[in-house]
């Protein structure tokens, strides 16, 4: 009984206190509402406005926080941004670089990998040192054997008849960089030594190795880097080595001239022509000594371009004209000249006829004398004279009197390359 009364007493006391609190809180609410009304009427300061804006922004950002990871990807780490465990991470996916998202290796992993590589390299070097020493010795012995074999082959060339073939050729001075120029000079010298004998062709075409041909096609299809001039020079050199470009064989031209002189000229006329060659031989030797086969190939290409230029010139002029090489072979003429000497126009191509074959004997000697006097004189290039033209047929004895002028076109080495002649028929009646 006492216990229950005490409980009731406590309950009554608590209800009394709650009433008091209720009354107190009601009084407090009334006071706060009055204070709020008074604060609403008071203007807010700038600091209060900033605090309220910060509080609202913090409420908007409220949400589940991103869990930090111990190791960020490369791009989040560089940007000092929070990363996640996914690979690719959400930040890289939003930036559209998910395919590039990866972890940067830890310094400890890099150090251990480097140590393993150095250890394996040291072991392989130690293991192969003895093997390399043995291989170097074998290569040295093999190289000495190849060198000895090469010397033996060079010493035994005469066993295969190579020297016998060279014995039939004119002796080429060792000071000439090009065999072609040396042979031409030798033929001129032979002319001066003897008035008789036939000069045979000293060149024989040799089969070019297949590898040089393949090298040319590869070079032409894919030249190395460089300027246009460098690439063109490289292609020309490869084409020359493959045998597709060759210098012109002037030796055959001198042989043809000698045969014609032996058959159609007197000894006095032959001697006069040979004296002319003795006049310009020293100048020719001075220039020709330093020329290489590549230089002569480039000269031949310039000659071909010159022929194309004179196609247009000859077709537009009504004067009989033709052009020939320094040995006399005609390589181009117009239809007026073909009609003048009564030969087909096709005969004035590719050296089928020579200019001295279309001249009377005295006119041919006169041409060679005037040509020899200015051939290597850079200050003179044109001569005006007269001549008697004829048909190459020996049975045709008719001659045509002409006023004749010729101009010498030289290459960049001052050697006559093309002689251009113009002929004006003169009536003798």
Explain what you see.
This protein is an alpha+beta fold and 429 residues long. It is 57% helix and 9% strand. It has helices at 2-41, 46-60, 74-79, 90-94, 107-155, 162-167, 179-193, 210-221, 228-241, 250-264, 267-288, 293-315, 335-341, 361-374, and strands spanning 321-324, 330-333, 382-390, 399-410, 416-425. It has a five-stranded antiparallel sheet with strand order 2-1-5-4-3, sandwiched between helices. Helix 8 runs antiparallel to helix 9. The longest helix has 49 residues, at 107-155. It starts with a helix and ends with a strand.
Task: Give the N-terminus to C-terminus distance in angstroms.
Answer: 182 Å
Give the count of helical stretches: 14
Mean pLDDT: 74
- What does the radius of gyration come to? 52 Å
Percent helix range:
55-70%
Overall geometry: elongated
The count of β-strands is: 5
- Give the helix/strand class: alpha+beta
Poorly predicted runs of 5 or more residues = 1-39, 154-174, 196-210
Fraction of residues in β-strands: 5-15%
Largest beta-sheet details: 5 strands, antiparallel
Strands side by side in the biggest sheet: 2-1-5-4-3
SSE pattern, N- to C-terminal = HHHHHHHHHHHHEEHHEEE
């Amino acid at each position: 009984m006492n216990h229950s009364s005490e409980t009731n007493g406590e309950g009554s006391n608590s209800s009394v206190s709650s009433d008091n609190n209720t009354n107190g809180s009601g009084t407090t609410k009334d006071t706060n509402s009055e204070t709020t009304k008074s604060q609403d009427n008071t203007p807010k300061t700038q600091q209060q406005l900033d605090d309220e804006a910060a509080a609202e922004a913090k409420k908007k950002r409220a949400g589940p926080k991103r869990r930090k990871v111990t190791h960020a990807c490369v791009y989040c780490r560089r940007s000092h941004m929070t990363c996640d465990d996914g690979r690719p991470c959400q930040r890289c996916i939003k930036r559209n670089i998910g395919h590039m998202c990866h972890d940067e290796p830890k310094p400890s992993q890099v150090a251990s990998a480097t140590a393993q590589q150095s250890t394996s390299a040291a072991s392989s070097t130690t293991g192969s040192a003895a093997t390399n020493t043995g291989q170097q010795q074998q290569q040295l012995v093999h190289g000495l054997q190849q060198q000895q074999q090469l010397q033996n082959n060079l010493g035994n060339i005469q066993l295969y008849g190579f020297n016998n073939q060279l014995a039939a050729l004119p002796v080429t001075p060792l000071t000439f960089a090009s065999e072609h120029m040396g042979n031409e000079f030798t033929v001129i010298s032979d002319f001066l030594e003897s008035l008789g004998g036939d000069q045979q062709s000293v060149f024989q075409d040799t089969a070019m190795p297949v590898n040089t041909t393949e090298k040319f096609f590869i070079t032409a299809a894919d030249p190395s880097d460089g300027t246009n001039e460098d690439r063109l020079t490289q292609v020309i050199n490869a084409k020359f080595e493959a045998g597709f470009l060759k210098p012109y064989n002037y030796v055959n031209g001198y042989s043809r001239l000698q045969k014609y002189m032996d058959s159609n000229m007197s000894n006095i006329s032959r001697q006069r022509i040979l004296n002319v060659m003795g006049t310009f031989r020293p100048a020719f030797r001075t220039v020709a000594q330093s020329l290489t086969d590549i230089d002569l190939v480039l000269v031949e290409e310039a000659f071909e371009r010159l022929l194309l230029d004179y196609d247009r010139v000859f077709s537009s002029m009504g004067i009989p004209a033709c052009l020939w090489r320094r040995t006399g072979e005609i390589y181009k003429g117009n239809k007026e000249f073909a009609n003048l000497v009564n030969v087909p126009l096709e005969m004035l191509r590719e050296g089928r006829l020579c200019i001295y074959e279309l001249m009377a004997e005295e006119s041919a000697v006169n041409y060679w004398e005037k040509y020899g006097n200015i051939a290597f004189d850079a200050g003179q290039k044109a001569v005006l004279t007269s001549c008697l033209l004829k048909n190459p047929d020996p049975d045709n004895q008719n001659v045509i009197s002409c006023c004749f002028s010729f101009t010498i076109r030289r290459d960049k080495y001052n050697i006559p390359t093309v002689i251009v002649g113009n002929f004006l028929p003169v009536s003798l009646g």
